[in-house]
Amino acid sequence: MVTCPICKELLQELTSIHCVKRHGMSKAKVIEQFGKPKRLFLTFAAESTVTTPTISSRDYLDSQLLTDRLNSKTRKFHV
């Protein structure tokens, strides 16, 4: 998804048809005068990514208890 550099309309791709119908110029002239269209998804993805996952000690303990219960042959851990 991109936004048109002139009208900021959300488009799947900037096409010559959009540029000619809306702005009366070719796609090449729009890019030359106003710059390339901005990619919306890359901006969204950059804002929403977490650099380092956080695992609390309680999460680790819970996962260990669950693993012990699943691997138990005597089922002594099951309530």
Structural description of this entry:
- By secondary structure, this protein is mainly α.
- The chain has a domain at 1-49.
- It has four helices and three strands, in the order ββααβαα.
- The chain has helices spanning 16-23, 27-34, 40-48, 57-71, and strands at 2-3, 10-11, 38-39.
- Strands 2-1-3 form a three-stranded antiparallel beta sheet.
- Strand 1 (2-3) and strand 2 form a beta hairpin.
- The longest helix is centred in the last third of the chain and has 15 residues, at 57-71.
- The radius of gyration is 26 Å and the shape is rod-shaped.
- The mean pLDDT is 79.
Give short descriptive properties of this protein.
three-stranded antiparallel β-sheet; 79 residues; mainly alpha
Topology of this protein?
Layout: E1 2-3, E2 10-11, H1 16-23, H2 27-34, E3 38-39, H3 40-48, H4 57-71
Antiparallel strand pairs: 1-2, 1-3
